[in-house]
Amino acid sequence: MASNAILVGTVALVTGASSGIGEATARRLAAEGAAVAIAARRFDRLEALAREIEDAGGRALAIEADVTDRAQSAALVERTVAELGRLDTVVNNAGVMLLGSTVDADVEEWDRMVDLNVKGLLYVAKAALPHLIAGAEAEPRRVTDLVNVSSVAGRRARADSAVYNLTKHGVGAFSEALRQEITERHVRVSLVEPGAVSTELASHNRPEVQAAMKGRFADLERLEADDIADAISYIVTRPRHVAINEILVRPTEQQG
Fold this sequence. Notes:
Largest sheet: 7 strands, parallel
Distance between the termini: 37 Å
Number of domains: 1
Low-confidence stretches: none
Strand order of the largest sheet: 3-2-1-4-5-6-7
Shape: globular
Strand content: 5-15%
Structural class: alpha/beta
CATH superfamily: NAD(P)-binding Rossmann-like Domain
């Protein structure tokens, strides 16, 4: 932890923290001094990450949770506050991307995306808001953050991404409306929209979809998870009077 760490005395909760952007973000926020609750379904990975953070001098709480279950989302937030003492930063990162033709789609894949990308994000946000509002009235920073991780797909619709586009456009609309509701209470709502990132996200797709994606990005130098974690860290470490409402981060070579 750096001697000038900005988030000392605060608590962050990161969902989808067992890999990729969530894992990298947890490390970043811990390095900035936050105690970090890390949540996902793969508890073994969470335990390893928590040990890594603690070995580096930080504080971490690993919580196994499926945020598509409203009761588990509420319990996740309540346990974070009960064991770490407060809540200042929430990074709603858990998500899934299942692409392919709409005509030939497996509707169960649609359900999975809506359940996780939309409903899971909403459940965590709803449970966290009272604590974020309370945290914004308290020292040491008197400002709190809800960061919702979306995608470039939340800005630009593409063929064979219809329902994924729908979920990410919905995250953007929810984030902006909520921002307007609570920004005067010094609860900042921010949207982060990554382009192509080297994570496990694409691996959840059917083999033919993975092959098409690999071809599309074959010559592209993708972002790394830590590039997005860096953007999230930037958002939540701004002074109280500065709100970063939206960040779109693409690889330099990515056109769409």
